[in-house]
Amino acid sequence: MASDIYLDANATSPVLPSAIAAAVEAMAASFGNPSSSHASGLRAKHILDTTRARARRVLGAGPGRVLFTSGATEGIQTAVLSALVAVRERRAAGEDCGDLLVYGATEHKAVSESLAHWNRLLGTNLTLTALPVDAGGRHRLDMLRELAPRAAMVCTMAANNETGVVSDLDGIAQVLRESRSRAYWMVDCVQALGKLPLDLAHTRIDYAPFSGHKLHAPKGIGMLYVRDGAPYTPLMIGGGQEGGQRSGTENMAGIAALGAVLAALEEGGTFRTHAELAALRDRLAGALRDAFPAIVFNAPFEHTLPTTLNFAVPGMPSKDLLDLFDAAGVRVSAGSACSAAKAAPSYVLDAMGLPPWRSGGAVRLSIGPLADDAFVDAACARIRACGQALAAPVLALADGAPGVLQVTGDGRHGWIVFDGATCVVLDPPCGQAERIAALVRAHGLRVLAVAGSGLDPDGSAARADLRRVLDLAASESQPLGWPADCGTVALDDGSHAFCLTIGNAVLARVPHCDGAGYLLGTAHAHRLPCSAVRMAFGALAAGDLQRLAHDGTVVCHGLDVDGVACTLPAARNDGTTGQLAADALDAFLRRHDDALLVDVREAFEAAAGALHLHGRATHNVPLSRLAEHVAGWLAAPARPVVFVCRSGNRSAKAALCLRRAGHAQSWTMAGGIALAGPESTR
Ligand code: PLP
């Protein structure tokens, strides 16, 4: 497995070596409690004081307060609590403080959720109002001008974590000044530290939270700047640490580490300048354009941090792009890290008015200000290799037998039966037309039929959509899309079925009261006997399969049945998945010399990073091509099959499928190659 190229610095960043050293020192030699009056305590207090002094200088805090917190989320809570308590008091004294809590539509969820939470808990009953952004992601100052007179608090981040869009803080300050707003102003500066100049005491900003781990300090340490004179209410009360403003024994390892990062910022020479970072960003963007010629960047570079690139590639969902990058050892994220697991559309990009494919397909690549030329060279080379991997044939064929590819969308499975020159698309799922058409075109296949089974209520619309994208005749010449010009084949029950020839096999259409079923097998002398039926699709009941197929026929479903997309006519075991822990794999492989290691990642992932486990090569069978291989594996029931993939999800499905089909020796490597570690993936 390729070594990591970490391009997800906006999610978190690697800890600076001098910060690690400072943290270790604070835990070993200087472990005292800064509140103790003996020498050990005084040494710790010295670290606390010098770090705060540095922070004041780096932030330009002037007479304002700088408190150490656990991170930005705590700083945001503290700022919101302080502002709303003050609003409540001013109101009680009869002052009109406005009725709105205004926050940028692209703020981190920590801001909007905190506003809602404290507004509810404190009973301030203000109306949360999202300040819209323009197509470039910047706050609509015209809208702010309208809202400012009614705002009790305004929250506008300095730079966005997903897009890197830098806010026009001077413009916002001017609007607040001109509208004589008395609103408290919080600016989430998490993504700005080390990337944008800060001179907080010379601004109107009341509260500015920071998070250490976004700039090469560890997780669990942050800072909050509070303007001199801005109201303050502690979030935590207790032993009176931080001058009574934030109780709890200080996180001295974190503070010492943050101090080392602040020292690097103040002294210079460690972090790249804005211009240097912009040059690195341009090189990364160039590599991305080479790899994905149709790429679109989701925010204009002139108003974004030079460390963040947010993009989408037409026809490639973000999940595929992330899988591809991860296979090449390039760590990026989909939208924001919080939503990466869900791959949901990004609310930030939605707020910018981008079309759903750009919002749902967005990928964020972010570097830290430590990045250097060698690192970016390596990253660019990997990115270009990702582009080349995309050329890996998805519809490769091993022999004359037709291939069968599963296409899933919205929980429904469609199937493409293909040979080297032609294909039939069965039950294309809704929303997959572009993807199927791109595949078919990339492999130069002639589409013999776009056929349905009648089982999917949206089937005819989905077929019509695919016909349109493929430039086929708009209307179906026969019901459910079967072509008029085809041959016939005799089935074992004496009936005749229309059929198409694909590779060395035939695909026969079996009419059914609910629609149609399809049988794929090798015909002899215009006969397709039960024993020669390899696969079945569509509307076929158990009785049909008994009459027309055999026990080993692989049945490909339109919806998961018992959690899997393909089964045998009768499930043969209880459907347990054989789980192999990553650290048990080596011993398992030693015990089972004949075990087959199957990588079920997509072909482009395997092309981006071929997988070896414990010195053994893996055999790539993408999950989407599993159905083709089930019968072959079942023919050797004693030979263990160990499925692996990136995170263990796809391999678990494959193992479950084969177990249900009766292969008691099918296994999944739990947790995927992500947990296998570099030693085992050689
Ligand atoms: N604000 C922004 C802009 C962020 O990017 C993040 C982290 O993703 C946060 C706030 C929350 O920071 P933390 O998780 O350190 O509390």
What can be said about this structure in brief?
By secondary structure, the chain is of the alpha/beta class. The radius of gyration is 30 Å and the shape is elongated. Pyridoxal-5'-phosphate is lined by residues 71-73, 108, 110, 157, 161, 188, 190-191, 211, 213, 222.
Work out the helix count: 21
Query: Mind summarizing the main beta sheet?
Result: 8 strands, mixed
SS class: alpha/beta
Strand arrangement, major sheet? 22-18-19-20-21-23-24-25
Gross geometry: elongated
Taking Cα atoms only, what radius of gyration do you get, to the nearest Å? 30 Å
Which molecules other than protein and nucleic acid are bound? pyridoxal-5'-phosphate
Write the layout of secondary structure elements.
Blueprint: E1 5-6, H1 17-27, H2 39-59, E2 65-69, H3 72-92, E3 100-104, H4 109-122, E4 127-131, H5 141-147, E5 151-155, H6 169-178, E6 184-186, E7 207-211, E8 222-226, H7 252-267, H8 274-291, E9 296-297, E10 308-312, H9 318-327, E11 330-331, E12 333-334, H10 337-340, H11 347-351, H12 356-360, E13 363-366, H13 373-389, E14 403-409, E15 412-418, E16 422-426, H14 433-442, E17 446-451, H15 459-469, E18 487-491, E19 496-502, E20 505-512, E21 515-521, E22 527-528, E23 533-538, H16 542-548, E24 554-561, E25 564-567, E26 578-580, H17 585-591, E27 596-599, H18 603-608, E28 612-613, E29 616-617, E30 619-620, H19 626-634, E31 641-644, H20 649-660, E32 666-669, H21 677-680
Parallel strand pairs: 1-11, 3-4, 3-5, 5-6, 16-17, 18-22, 23-24, 26-32, 27-30, 27-31, 31-32
Antiparallel strand pairs: 2-8, 7-8, 9-10, 10-13, 12-13, 14-15, 15-16, 18-19, 19-20, 20-21, 21-23, 24-25, 28-29
Helix pairs in contact: 1-7, 2-7, 3-4, 8-13, 14-15
The structure holds pyridoxal-5'-phosphate (PLP).
Pyridoxal-5'-phosphate is lined by residues 71-73, 108, 110, 157, 161, 188, 190-191, 211, 213, 222.
